[in-house]
């Protein structure tokens, strides 16, 4: 069963009396009256991270991916709670020391504060992060409009290449491997965008499951489709180098998830404001396509103006 079928069939009706739950069709809970925004994410070994050989890096990835849910909504994260299940091997003194050091570094970087949590013994390693922030308003899902421009922050695909190298599915030289592995474990969360995005975005989501999968989620309750231009999807110079060197196809590397960049739509009359934000904040924002009526099928167009067929839309949670 797909994650969204599970929510719709069994849990959505339980949230009807809580408008702040947003019908369980967003990445956050938002109590507008109390300005309270909350996101909850669970990460399990073998699913969300390969293993726990690098606990200091795994915990950085977990924290950053968790707060990205708030950032893409225009909410600055302030507090986080962490609950963990594991055994003596997972939480050895050495590992705990590394985890504590990494958490301290992330707290200093993002100005967030550990505020509670829980631990339980289990032979299955997992972490659950609850992130909390405060805002007068947020950017919701399913608020896109026909003819909206589609934008993405940063670059896409580096994290996926990092995952492939960690799985030994792609051989790279030491320098490139280090770069992509770091991008996998330490995604560049666009905190500078938090204060600005509400000035121009109609709807937003962070890219966790993949560009196409998350774009589908962003408009899943609207009679809309999208048109993307492959050449416009931003990738790093290092990824360009690898694609050329290995003769790989770009479309297969830009929608596999774990990017944690901000995906949003904005009206065309916001283009000037967005260009100004890019200049003032130093955040990379790239227009990659537009929103269309559902009468037109969603599509990706290559440099020859030909529609690309694609099989893999990203990561899907199934039960």
Keywords:
alpha+beta, 60s Ribosomal Protein L30, Chain: A, Phosphoribosyl-aminoimidazole Synthetase, Chain A, domain 2, 2 domains, 6-stranded mixed beta sheet, globular
Question: Please, could you describe this protein's structure?
Answer:
The chain has 319 residues and is an alpha+beta fold. The chain has two domains: 10-134, PurM-like, N-terminal domain (60s Ribosomal Protein L30, Chain: A, 2-Layer Sandwich); 149-301, PurM-like C-terminal domain (Phosphoribosyl-aminoimidazole Synthetase, Chain A, domain 2, Alpha-Beta Complex), CATH 3.90.650.10. Helices cover 29% and strands 23% of the residues. It is built from eight helices and eleven strands. The chain has helices at 3-11, 55-71, 93-110, 158-166, 174-185, 211-218, 237-246, 271-281, and strands at 29-31, 36-44, 77-86, 113-121, 126-134, 149-153, 201-206, 224-229, 262-266, 285-293, 299-301. The strands form two sheets. It has a six-stranded mixed sheet, sandwiched between helices. Strands 1-2-5-3-4 form a five-stranded mixed sheet, covered by helices on one side. Helix 3 (93-110) links the parallel strand 3 and strand 4. Residues 315-319 have low confidence and may be disordered.
Overall average pLDDT = 93
Number of domains: 2
- Number of E strands: 11
The SS-based structural class is alpha+beta
User: Strand order, biggest sheet?
Assistant: 7-9-6-10-8-11
Q: What summary fits the major beta sheet?
A: 6 strands, mixed
> What portion of residues belong to β-strands?
15-25%
* Low-pLDDT segments: 315-319
* CATH class placement of the largest domain: Alpha Beta
Count, helices: 8
Q: Give the N-to-C terminal Cα separation.
A: 5 Å
Name of the CATH superfamily of the largest domain: PurM-like C-terminal domain
> What best-fitting shape do the alpha-carbon axes yield?
globular
Order of SSEs: HEEHEHEEEHHEHEHEHEE
CATH fold call of the largest domain: Phosphoribosyl-aminoimidazole Synthetase, Chain A, domain 2
* Share of helical residues: 25-40%
Radius of gyration, Cα only, in angstroms? 19 Å
CATH architecture of the largest domain: Alpha-Beta Complex
